[in-house]
Design goal:
single chain, alpha+beta, globular
Length: 103
């Protein structure tokens, strides 16, 4: 399975969480913003996706455990634009990564 297909497998979960959280016109959260690239029950899957992105971007991403799942996240960022810039650098296979209020 390629990195892009692994990301695609987890993006549906991220997209559904974004819709459930409401993604209309948002004000800046006090905690800042973070970029959620992928969520999965498999740490190995999340780490393999991180290993497949350019090194300059991978350095800004972390593998974290939240609510029983592993996640590949970047941030927190003070401004949403900074999170959007990082998402753009991930490339087309990660274009669906969600920008959400930081946990």
């Amino acid at each position: 399975m390629t990195s892009c297909s692994r990301v695609a497998a987890g993006l549906l979960v991220v997209a559904l969480a974004s819709v459930a959280a409401g993604s209309g016109a948002e004000t800046a959260p006090a905690t800042g913003w973070e970029l959620v690239v992928l969520r999965s029950p498999s740490r190995e899957l999340v780490e393999s996706v991180r290993d497949g992105v350019p090194a300059a971007v991978a350095d800004r991403l972390s593998v974290v455990r939240r609510a029983g799942e592993w996640a590949l996240v970047g941030g927190p960022f003070a401004g949403r634009a900074e999170a959007e810039a990082l998402r753009a650098r991930l490339g087309p296979c990660c274009a669906g990564a969600a920008i959400v209020p930081a946990a």
